[in-house]
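Need Transcription elongation factor, GreA/GreB family's 3D structure for a figure. Predict it.
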Amino acid sequence: MNKAFTKEEDGTTPQRLPDLPISEHPNHVTPRGLAQLKARADKLEAEIARLRANRDYMADSYPLAVAERDLRYVEARLASAILVEPPEDPPGHVSFGATVTVVDEDGIETSYTIVGEDESDPNQHLIAAFSPLARALMEARVGDVVEWPRPSGLVELEVLAISFEG
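Structure prediction for Transcription elongation factor, GreA/GreB family:
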C-alpha cells in the first residue's frame, strides 16, 4: 500500500491498545469477586480522569491507553458476570464458592476456596473453578478422596471440611 494512505502515530492522538483476551469460561463470581471488579473499575475510571486532566498526558499517552484498555476489560467482565451467592442451606458437597479443607498424602492440611477467574489468587489459596484442583474437588463430600492431576503426578487429597462464606 502506498505510504500516503497509511496513518502513522504523530503523537497527537492517544493510542488504543488491543483489548485483553476474554476467557471462554463462564464468568461466575462470588459476591466478594463482584465487589472487587466494581472497585477495580472505579479505580481505573479515577486514574483515566486524572490522566486526562493532566495537560501533559499527550506527551506520553501510553499510561492512558493502558488504563483505558484495562477498563474495557473490567467492564466486559462486569457485563458478563454471573453472581453466585453462597447457598443458604449449604449442600453436602463441594461447589462454586466453597472453602474446602483437604489433607494430602503427607498429612499436610490446606484450605482452598473455589472462586471466579478474576478473583483467583493461588498464593492466597483462591482457585479458579476451572482449574485442575477445583475440577478434582467439585462434587466431593467430606471423607472423599480425590485425585488432583499435577505435572509431577497425581496427588490424593482427602476432603476434611466444606464451608461457604456468608
